[in-house]
């Protein structure tokens, strides 16, 4: 019987090896440089496949083994390449269109655990006080260690209004923090806006989605009509924005830059991965007309401040980097996350897809953001504990297998955060005896409010610039 199993395993492994070789050969046949196939390594793979089929303590389906092999192959490349099964592919598509189910957190994998990159505003996770850098170690009573990222995400998703308990570790806390959330259908409003006072506009972008550029244009027109004259200043808030669609980032940049200005360029191994995206409609419009064409001309010249922090990633860094390089805006806040790589979604024939890192992106002046982030022109630390900045300050450079950055930048001017006794007490407060974090029960600070220290500093800067212009 054992001999039969071994024979069957070797036959199966041989078939797999043959398919892999034929597919690999056809894939590289069109390349100018035809690399040698790693025949010995593929033989080892086939041998291990056969041994698992014949000797593992329980029978394992071929599909499971191959799926796990694909998962490992992609996750071992960098923190952002991943295999998406059919459900994961559908969830990704739903997320970019602004509606999906779950808790509302952007997550990554680190040393076998789930780490929070950024909570999405107005979601259960955000309202419960989850912070960037929180390490999720348990989902209900199930340890996360050993799960794939896809498995963990699936467990966090579920029917609306059903509860899930997260056990998290947070820097500075002596005990694990236990938070119970109710799942919800996440409908994210990517653009929020208001006139903070006559002449001063505030726009917050929470995520770069399919219609973010159009929504921004509508918001600017609405506020401009309400103000009835050119703005004296505009604050663009990209804090805790985990990124999103590249064309949306180009559209947002194009709203404030002269037509034709370079927004971002990418460098990769294939010709498709080498792009130069400028502030032209063909680089940000997906069908239909140019949604920026009717914006008042003064939007291109209004004094601007852009707010970023450690939760600002990817598309947020493209926008802030472009505006910084063109000296179109003053960047304020704290150093951003540092995700300067491009992921391409490659659909497979069976309804699955792979998310593969295919390029690095660079700002107009040739700066790589990868593993460094955007360094603000004026560093303003946050003045309240109820923000992402008081978490573990997780950044791209902290993730295993992250791509390197060969370049460096300058040190920003710093505005120190005033230390108040209340702030000092809260910073030192431990979790209670049940592991409950009392700070997490407080409502998060409202961005763009009078309690938002970074916002008030940006507003003060714009008012100061207005005074200097008049003089």
UniProtKB/TrEMBL annotation:
Organism this protein belongs to: Methylovorus glucosotrophus (strain SIP3-4)
Q: Which UniProt keywords apply?
A: Hydrolase, Protease, Serine protease
* Entry annotated with the keyword Protease: yes
Q: Please indicate which superkingdom the organism of origin belongs to.
A: Bacteria
What protein is this chain from?
Carboxyl-terminal protease
Instruction: List the biased-composition ranges (Basic and acidic residues).
Output: 400-410, 426-444
Q: Which residues form the PDZ domain?
A: 89-157
Q: Which GO terms describe its biological process?
A: proteolysis; signal transduction
Which family is this protein grouped under?
Belongs to the peptidase S41A family.
InterPro entries given in the database record? ClpP/crotonase-like_dom_sf, CtpA/B_N, PDZ, PDZ_sf, Peptidase_S41A, Tail-specific_protease
This entry's Enzyme Commission designation comes to: 3.4.21.102
Under Gene Ontology molecular function, one entry of this record is: serine-type endopeptidase activity
Gene3D superfamilies per UniProt: 2-enoyl-CoA Hydratase, Chain A, domain 1, 2.30.42.10, 3.30.750.44
Report residue spans for region: Disordered.
400-452
Q: Name one GO cellular component term.
A: outer membrane-bounded periplasmic space
Enzyme class, first EC level, given as a word:
hydrolase
Under Pfam families, the record lists: CtpB_N-like (PF22694), PDZ_2 (PF13180), Peptidase_S41 (PF03572)
Matching CDD domains: cpPDZ_CPP-like, Peptidase_S41_CPP
Q: Which residues form a coiled coil?
A: none
């Amino acid at each position: 019987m054992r001999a039969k199993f071994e024979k069957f395993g070797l036959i199966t492994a041989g078939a797999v090896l043959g398919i892999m070789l034929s597919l690999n050969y056809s894939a590289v046949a069109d390349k100018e440089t035809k690399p040698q196939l790693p025949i010995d390594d593929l033989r080892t793979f086939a041998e291990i496949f056969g041994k698992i089929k014949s000797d593992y303590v329980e029978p394992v389906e071929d599909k499971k083994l191959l799926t796990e092999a694909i998962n490992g192959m992609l996750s071992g490349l960098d923190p952002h390449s991943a295999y998406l099964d059919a459900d994961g592919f559908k969830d990704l598509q739903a997320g970019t269109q602004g509606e999906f189910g779950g808790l509302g957190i952007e997550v990554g994998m680190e040393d076998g655990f789930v780490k929070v990159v950024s909570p999405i505003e107005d979601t259960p996770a955000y309202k419960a006080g989850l912070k960037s850098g929180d390490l999720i170690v348990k989902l209900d009573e199930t340890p996360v260690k050993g799960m794939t990222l896809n498995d963990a995400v699936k467990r966090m998703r579920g029917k609306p209004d059903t509860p899930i308990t997260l056990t998290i570790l947070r820097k500075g806390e002596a005990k694990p923090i236990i938070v119970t959330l109710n799942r919800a259908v996440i409908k994210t409003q990517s653009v929020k806006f208001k006139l903070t006072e006559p002449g001063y506009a505030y726009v917050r972008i929470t995520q770069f989605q399919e219609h973010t550029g159009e929504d921004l244009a509508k918001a600017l027109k609405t506020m401009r009509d309400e103000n009835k004259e050119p703005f004296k200043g505009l604050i663009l808030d990209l804090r805790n924005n985990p990124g999103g669609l590249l064309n949306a980032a180009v559209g947002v940049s194009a709203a404030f830059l002269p037509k034709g200005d370079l927004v971002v360029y990418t460098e990769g191994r294939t010709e498709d991965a080498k792009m130069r995206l400028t502030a032209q409609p063909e680089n940000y419009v997906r069908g239909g007309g140019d949604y920026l064409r009717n914006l008042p001309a003064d939007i291109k010249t209004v004094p601007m401040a852009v707010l970023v922090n450690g939760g600002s990633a990817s598309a947020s860094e493209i926008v802030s980097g472009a505006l910084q390089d063109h000296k179109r805006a003053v960047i304020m806040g704290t150093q951003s996350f540092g995700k300067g790589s491009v992921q391409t979604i490659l659909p497979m024939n069976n309804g699955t897809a792979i998310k593969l890192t295919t390029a690095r992106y660079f700002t107009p002046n040739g700066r790589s953001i990868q593993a460094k982030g955007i360094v603000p022109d004026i560093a303003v630390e946050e003045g309240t504990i109820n923000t992402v900045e008081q978490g573990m300050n997780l950044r791209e450079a902290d993730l295993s297998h992250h791509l390197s950055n060969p370049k460096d930048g300058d040190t920003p001017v710093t505005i120190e955060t005033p230390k108040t006794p209340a702030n000092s007490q809260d910073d030192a407060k431990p979790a209670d005896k049940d592991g409950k974090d009392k700070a997490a029960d407080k409502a998060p600070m409202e961005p763009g409010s009078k309690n938002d220290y970074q916002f008030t500093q940006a507003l003060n800067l714009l008012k100061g610039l207005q005074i200097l212009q008049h003089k």
